[in-house]
Amino acid sequence: MIEVHREICAYCGCCVSVCPEGALELVDAYLDIDMNTCIDCGICVRVCPLGALEAKK
């Protein structure tokens, strides 16, 4: 499961562009994660320039 630290996130979209499943979407300056689609690959966590995403077990 991916957790978004909203106080850090700048909503730049870097994570959205690399998600292989299309589980991330920017909606009105809000990062939405479809947990039914997310496969917990962690690519979004690794590319976030601010460290706003965290993989939770």
Structural overview:
The protein has about 55 residues and is of the alpha+beta class. The chain has one domain (about 1-55): Alpha-Beta Plaits (2-Layer Sandwich), CATH 3.30.70.20. The chain is built from two helices and four strands, in the order βαββαβ. The protein has helices at about 15-20, 45; strands at about 1-5, 25, 30-35, 55. Strands 1-4 form a two-stranded antiparallel sheet. It has a two-stranded antiparallel ribbon with strand order 2-3. Strand 2 and strand 3 (about 30-35) form a beta hairpin. The longest helix is centred in the N-terminal third of the chain and has 5 residues, at about 15-20. The chain is globular, with a radius of gyration of 10 Å. The model has no long low-confidence stretch (mean pLDDT about 95).
Number of strands: 4
Separate helix tally = 2
Which ranges are low-confidence, i.e. pLDDT below 50, for 5 or more consecutive residues?
A: none
CATH class term: Alpha Beta
Classify the fold: give the CATH topology: Alpha-Beta Plaits
The whole-angstrom Rg is 10 Å
**Strand residue percentage:** 15-25%
Helical residue percent band: 10-25%
Largest beta sheet: strand ordering: 1-4
Based on secondary structure, the structural category is alpha+beta
| First and last CA, distance | 6 Å
